[in-house]
Amino acid sequence: MRHPEWIKVKLTETHGTKKILRHHKVSTVCEEARCPNQGKCFSRNTATFMVLGDRCTRNCSFCAVESSSPLPLDPNEPERVADAASALGLKFVVITSVTRDDLPDGGAGQFARTIQAVRKKNPAIKIEVLTPDFRGNVQALKTVLDAQPDVFNHNVETVPRLYSTVRPQAGYLLSIHVLKTAKQLCPGMKTKSGLMLGLGENASEVLSVMRDLRDADCDFLTIGQYLRPRRNNIPVVEYIRPEMFEQYRIKGLEMGFIAVASSPLTRSSMDAGDLFKTIKVE
Prior knowledge:
Layout: H1 15-23, E1 27-28, H2 29-32, H3 38-43, E2 48-51, H4 77-88, E3 92-97, H5 108-121, E4 126-130, H6 138-146, E5 151-153, H7 163-166, H8 172-185, E6 190-197, H9 203-215, E7 220-225, H10 242-255, E8 259-262, H11 272-277
Parallel strand pairs: 2-3, 3-4, 4-5, 5-6, 6-7, 7-8
Antiparallel strand pairs: 1-2
Helix pairs in contact: 4-5, 5-6, 6-8, 9-10
């Protein structure tokens, strides 16, 4: 399907940011997942770091990240991420990862070490983590939270009916449980989740997911249009018009979310620092 007129991505100069990322040998979800906003973010020296390597043990139909047997954990990865964040001059950093079902803790320890390394080099920095579900391992979740990120993000991605197609190795109720448990373990920490639209869901299903997230005391919500990153990924079913995204944004605020970013090109970690700033006017 051709992209509609309201989905336009402006090409921008990104060599400076890419040079820093290559120098420190760090991976970004921006590149690995082929994010359409990569140019915009890189032009502003912003990137979302992807830890635990670049190979995922799951094979979600929407995702462009390579799915294969992962390599052993790199003990130097946390320091390289910290150095890259410092070199980019970041004041707000987002750390995400591939899913590592092969590891007993799902990679939670590496998340914690990365948070600690970034904070040690950049004491004033704010940190958001976007984690996998750790298969519901509460101790793994606690390991990440004990490192005290400022925002804990875990994406539900889509509506329950589509999980068997979109996220066959994950579970909707498990994702809701992860968010709810994170808030229970750290009541003062902000939680966040994200949805993709255009996969065949309907409006009532989207609103139902939004209510489930609020019932889990989720603070921030991002809603964006799914765009097929590769030919072997699941196709787009529908392009949702911008005015519908705006309706979801307004409805989300009415439900009690602190902030809702909702537009065709909204992505979970895009402008995360700006979303975090809304806490000040909560």
